[in-house]
Automatic annotation (TrEMBL):
It comes from the Eukaryota. Keywords: ATP-binding, Chaperone, Cytoplasm, Nucleotide-binding. The lineage of its organism: Eukaryota, Viridiplantae, Prasinodermophyta, Prasinodermophyceae, Prasinodermales. Belongs to the TCP-1 chaperonin family. GO terms for molecular function: ATP binding; ATP-dependent protein folding chaperone. This is T-complex protein 1 subunit gamma. InterPro entries: Chaperone_TCP-1, Cpn60/GroEL/TCP-1, GroEL-like_apical_dom_sf, GROEL-like_equatorial_sf. The keyword Cytoplasm applies. It comes from Prasinoderma coloniale.
Amino acid sequence: DVVMPGKMKRNIVKPRILLLDCPLEYKKGESQTNVEIVKEEDWATLLKMEEEWIENQCNMIAAFKPDLVVTEKGISDFAVHHFCKMGITAVRRLRKTDNNRIARAAGATIVHRCDEIKESDIGTKAGLFKVEKIGDEYFSFVVDCEEPKACSIVLRGASKDVLNEVERNLHDAMGVAKNVVQDPRLVPGGGAVEMAVSKALSEKASSIEGVEQWPYRTVGEALEIIPRTLAQNCGVNVIRTITKLRAKHADGESSTWGINGETGEIQCMKELGIWEPYAVKVQVIKTAAESAMMLLRIDDILSGMSHKQQGGGRPAGPTGTQVDENAGDNVDSERQLAE
């Protein structure tokens, strides 16, 4: 809200906005500052110096005829009194991020000192400044800007839990919109992509002989977990549904068919209008493959350490060697003679 609600305007059309990040109050001394006052007049002189300094700051601001002054720091009562006399509306203790948004929306420049203000620093692209009460709090709006490059979204909810859920949904929606803008390619949802990739990997595995075909088959089976989970969430027969979907993709002309998340039936995702960003789908598959490889590497390291511990931790036999009569030809190569 504005600093002085009763005397400052809460609705300004075409405002001239000045943004500051400096305080409009007398600078306080450092921690070790001492002021020595000998006479009673010295105290009055000290107060008068402070008032003159604040008045000088307000006069420098008023010379550019702003309608709205916004600062990230505090404003003294004496400065508020001067602003009210000059017909200037003031807002104080604004966050840095909000001040940057106002600067981008209104075409203003944030000024660090009052004696550095220039006419080009005044924002004139805002159409309306208004203060509205929403619930129990007051919110200031700078709207109807000519070339806005920033905006704020106000969310409302019955409780904090509902509000947090709305915020998460909005964040996800904005992320999807950003991905589509950066990479406009889309793929059908409902597990259609996973089933199509699984089919392609199975065909690739059939053309390979030996154990090298098993990684293709394993990855293909792992990708089917997405449509399988969708079917489970719908409460339908998982085996029958996945079999129907696999048969549908085997035709070669139904690669856009997936599972309807509401009914559990297999349908064409293109007709239902269910799409997913291509960038997200590729990143998910890459992350899954990298996680699996990382776990395999860790498993190799741990198994190697356990072999070494087993090889060096057993007691030696009567002749000074480690003997395992039941090992046969499967003796670990890391088991060495005791020193």
